Amino acid sequence: MTESLGAIERDVVACRRCPRLVAWREKSAANPPRRFRGERYWARPLPAFGDPAARVLLVGLAPAAHGGNRTGRIFTGDASGDFLFAALHATGFANRPRSTSRDDGLALAGALVTAAARCAPPANRPTPAEFDRCRPYLAGEIAALPDLRVLVALGGLAFVQLLEALRAAGREVPRPRPRFAHGSETRIGPYVVLGAYHPSQQNTFTGKLTRPMLERVFRRARALSR
Question: Which domain holds residue 155?
């Protein structure tokens, strides 16, 4: 029986399965950088955000310690999120170009944003075991979206974890595993999986990922989702 997104969200927010991640997200909240001192951190796992009737699902890697872990919304409160939501706004998925807090009025239409791991990890890298423990949440979200047609993996690690979540959801994933590339397209069951570079500062500051590049992927996602 497919769980609802609301039920998955409740399970995600209450999760304490990974002691290392629990300790890190809470330590980050207790020791914020000067610019965030005095703010009350979310310091819990992050649920998906967006349209429950989404035809497009975007999958990132994990929350940032002083981004989503602080604000309580995925890709919110950091430079990666600014880049991502500006592109979503430009392509008609978001009603505004920035995501700053859970009550900022941002809404998505036709898209849901989630992540392979739901807690901020040390060095921005969950362990394989941590990915494994989080995978049922992503697999459940995929199953809970009846109109889903397109999945966008933001980065190579998210791409690998998304394929594993599809396999966990009962979809046949090709072997050898499809290769990640920006703009790549892979058909898996009823879905098309698109690859996109992650909107990290490492990618955007160096020009590896530009706004037009990301917007092209999102426009392609919209076209495929119709």
Answer: 5-225
